[in-house]
């Protein structure tokens, strides 16, 4: 009985012990579980707090960036405003200066245009010449007057001298031409002395040409073959061209610019190299109209009559035809038709 009681007590004690251990274990588990929950809660709170702090920092950065952007924008606006004020201040002063400059410029332009107009007007008046044909009475404005044409002819003469071989050392032919030239010196109607230089050209062509400055170019063949009276006829014919300004009438006013340039440099031969002088020169060798040639023959007869050369216009034509026929006998000679062409230096 006692053993049963002891056994029962032992069993009860063991049961109580197990129950105590289980209770203790349960308590420990609950305690541990509670602790873990607290830690999780703390971790969650810390995480939320960190997120909140991170969000606050980001918001602070955004606010700082916005504030910096606003400050920068305000600074730029301020700088723009300052630049605008400076520009307006400068523009105000520049506008005054610009208006003054425009006023001066317009005055200078107007004055310069007026001076140029006066300059060209004076040059046109000084260089050109009104001409009346002594035979038919026609009037024409020539692009160059006699005085300047003589200077121009001197430059052209220099070109001819350079292009041809001059043989003035042939005294017999030179003196023959000089004698013919001197016979015309007393003819005052031409209003200029016939005392230019004589240039004998080493050519077999028919060349007899006289420039407005009085220079005479004659080929060796003409000076040798023609008689003195025939040379007088040629000289009278050439002088009629100069007196009637026949070749000058061929020069168009499009050459006025070149003539003006040469006149400004006093028709110096050096400057002539830089001007299309060949264009002007050609007008002294261009063919003349039949009407001009006939008028020249009438004037040549008048000149020869003053020199006591007993020739009427018909006789003059006869002598001219005789001279042309002489050279037509030679097919290699330069054929000169006085009814169609002016003497040429080609």
UniProtKB/TrEMBL annotation:
Cofactor comment text: Binds 1 zinc ion per subunit.
Gene Ontology terms: biological process: proteolysis
Cofactor: Zn(2+)
Biased amino acid composition, Basic and acidic residues: 36-76
One of the Pfam families matching this protein, by short name: Peptidase_M48
Keyword Protease tagged: yes
Keywords, in A-Z order: Hydrolase, Metal-binding, Metalloprotease, Protease, Zinc
A single MF term (Gene Ontology): metalloendopeptidase activity
Location of the region described as Disordered in the Swiss-Prot/TrEMBL record: 28-76
Family (UniProt): Belongs to the peptidase M48 family.
Record-given protein name: M48 family peptidase
Lineage: Eukaryota, Sar, Alveolata, Ciliophora, Intramacronucleata
